[in-house]
């Protein structure tokens, strides 16, 4: 009998010692037990509130979406990918039980990256964001129109919108303080060449200098690490795109043009943008009287369609626009 007790004690000691070891049969045993233990707890939770679990599963079925790969479209050229979405049913359920029935259900989700990203597509121009992403961007090209910039910045502040300003390098050199004001308001600052040339007509050396000089000026004057290049007047060729890519920049154009340099009435501009804006739309603007007066109406018209406004970087990213009440 004493011998049997001693054997039991020794066996228990062996298990305790084994818990501190990273190898051996004890580790294998614990590995086998862990998922069973978690499953047992999960089954217990499931039985605790079947209606709650069903609600979460129903929401997951509605929201779960597969990621969309970036692709080169025949018309739109490089189109960014879009992250997938997956509701973590178990984590959401546990969170809801801890919070209690008085709190609104908050879904815990994770985003799933696409296999093909914009970076994988090579030197391609970009005209729009992913059509599945309910976000729009205002692209404001600046080479003149100083008198309208601050009024436009004030409206963007009032509406809590961040835009992307593409700065002509020669303008930036002369208007550093105004550029700093744009930056101080939290907007994205990017590259619009140096002297507003037609890029397709330039030699490779000159085209490179136009982009490179403004890129360096953005860094020196504002500390900006330039990512995007918008060709002046939308004029470019494949060599332009390749030169920009060699300098670490992606070439971006627009989906929808305000043509505000023709000074259309603000009312017509609001109607045009509000009716034509769609998920992924990049809207080209300038600091003009028309756009300055139409800006607030355009923003509200875009939002009325259920679209968010973001910078070019935000709109062209694969990051998913999440629905409300998720974590």
Topology, please?
Elements: H1 2-19, H2 25-48, H3 50-63, E1 71-73, E2 77-79, E3 84-87, H4 89-99, E4 109-112, E5 135-142, H5 146-158, E6 164-167, H6 169-174, H7 176-184, E7 188-191, H8 204-222, E8 228-229, H9 238-246, E9 250-251, E10 256-257, H10 266-276, E11 282-285, H11 289-304, E12 308-310, H12 312-316
Parallel strand pairs: 5-6, 5-11, 5-12, 6-7, 8-9, 10-11
Antiparallel strand pairs: 1-2, 3-4
Helix pairs in contact: 3-4, 5-11, 8-9, 10-11
How many DSSP H or I helices?
Answer: 12
Topology-level CATH name of the largest domain: TIM Barrel
Sheet with most strands: 6 strands, parallel
Whole-number count of domains: 2
Query: From the alpha-carbon coordinates, what is the Rg to the nearest angstrom?
Result: 28 Å
Structural class label: alpha/beta
The count of β-strands is 12
Parts with pLDDT < 50 across at least 5 consecutive residues: 1-42
Strand content: 5-15%
What is this structure, in a nutshell?
With 327 residues, the chain is α/β, with parallel strands linked by helices. Helix content is 47%, strand content 13%.
What does this structure look like?
With 327 residues, this protein is of the alpha/beta class. It folds into 2 domains: 29-63 and 82-115, no CATH class; 121-316, TIM Barrel. It is built from 12 helices and 12 strands. The protein has helices at residues 2-19, 25-48, 50-63, 89-99, 146-158, 169-174, 176-184, 204-222, 238-246, 266-276, 289-304, 312-316, and strands spanning 71-73, 77-79, 84-87, 109-112, 135-142, 164-167, 188-191, 228-229, 250-251, 256-257, 282-285, 308-310. Strands 5, 6, 7, 10, 11 and 12 form a 6-stranded parallel β-sheet that branches. It has a two-stranded antiparallel ribbon with strand order 1-2. Strands 3-4 form a two-stranded antiparallel ribbon. Strand 10 (256-257), helix 10 and strand 11 form a beta-alpha-beta unit. Helix 3 (50-63) crosses helix 4 (89-99). The N and C termini lie far apart (59 Å).
